[in-house]
Design brief:
Elements (H helix, E strand, L loop, with lengths): L1 H57 L7 E5 L6 H8 L12 H8 L5 E9 L3 E8 L2 E7 L1 E6 L4 E4 L10 E3 L3 H6 L1 H19 L9 E7 L2 E6 L4 E5 L3 H17 L4 E5 L10 E4 L3 H4 L6
Parallel strand pairs: 1-3, 4-7, 7-8, 10-11
Antiparallel strand pairs: 2-3, 4-5, 5-6, 8-9, 9-10, 11-12
Helix pairs in contact: 2-3
Membrane topology: Single-pass type II membrane protein
InterPro entries: Cell_div_FtsQ/DivIB_C (IPR005548), FtsQ (IPR026579), FtsQ_C_sf (IPR045335), POTRA (IPR034746), POTRA_FtsQ_type (IPR013685)
Family: Belongs to the FtsQ/DivIB family. FtsQ subfamily.
């Protein structure tokens, strides 16, 4: 009898274990299956990503075939390509756009540059160049842009005829760049204001001299105009009236003073000597 009871107990234990396992499967089976499926999908995605990356980096489909440029006037495409090392046959996915932009921006005429990839096989380069508005003497001659930045040493092939800014030497510029930049901006403002009046050929602005007591203009006919400081628009209008009056009388000025601080409305003019007097001869 004892033997029969032990056998029944074993059957009961087995049945209970089976029931417990069935319950666990019912309770946790869906979650476990989901975890297995997600793990499989993750592995598949990782493998697929690796293979896709390998294909993208090696496929001839993404090799550079064409580079287009816009905004170029002084710089040349070949120069920018040489600086950047960008060549046909490079993989677009491996291009470091930031590095390409920094390299091209070292060209003296380039102010800003934006490089864009156009998949599958082309690159566009949009360039904004410096616009020279004057020359400045800093030991050598440099081109000045409209922001008062000397951006390039003047070369004979540049072929530019621009007003000259003097009175700010290289040492002063290096010692106090902020102060020198302020003086350059003041000179450029004068250049812009004067040229906007569209002067005649003989009245074109040749030089703007930065002096301790203000700006001095030198016109293409040799006339010096001492502007002093402040009220530049009014002084330019006064200068136009004075030159028109002199022209009507057949006279020309050697120096025109518009820098009287005590009496800002006054104008003093030193009349040029006739050619015969300057050469020490008598008029016929």
């Amino acid at each position: 009898m004892a033997f029969g009871k032990s056998k029944n107990r074993r059957h009961q234990d087995v049945a209970q274990k089976k029931a417990a396992m069935a319950g666990a499967v019912r309770a946790h089976g869906p979650g476990l299956l989901k975890a297995i499926v997600l793990t499989g999908l993750t592995c598949a995605l990782l493998w697929g990503g690796i293979e896709l990356r390998r294909w993208a980096l090696t496929s001839p489909f993404f090799l550079l075939k064409e580079t287009s440029f816009s905004g170029l006037h002084r710089a040349h495409p070949g120069e920018l390509l040489k600086l950047s090392g960008l060549t046909v046959g490079q993989n677009l996915w491996t291009l470091d756009v930031d590095s390409l932009e920094r390299a091209m921006a070292t060209h003296p005429w380039v102010r800003d540059v934006a490089v864009r990839r156009h998949f599958p096989a082309s690159v566009s380069v949009e360039v904004s160049e410096h616009a020279p508005v004057a020359l400045v003497v800093l030991n050598d001659l440099y081109l000045l842009n409209e922001e008062g930045k000397p951006f390039k040493r003047l070369q004979p092939e540049d072929g530019l005829d621009l007003p000259l800014v003097t009175g700010v030497d290289r040492e002063a510029y290096l010692a106090d760049e902020a102060k020198a930049h302020e003086s350059l901006l003041e000179a450029l403002a004068m250049v812009a204001a004067y040229t906007s009046a569209r002067p005649g050929k003989s009245e074109r602005l040749s030089e703007v001299r930065v002096a301790d007591d203000g700006l001095v203009l030198v016109l293409s006919d040799g006339t010096q105009v001492r502007m002093g400081e402040g009220a530049m628009e009014e002084k330019l209008q006064r200068l136009a009236r004075v030159r028109e009056g002199l022209k009507g009388k057949g006279l020309s000025a050697e120096v025109i003073h518009l820098d009287n601080r005590a009496r800002p409305g006054w104008v003093a003019v030193k009349i040029s000597s006739p050619v015969s007097e300057r050469n020490g001869t008598s008029a016929q």
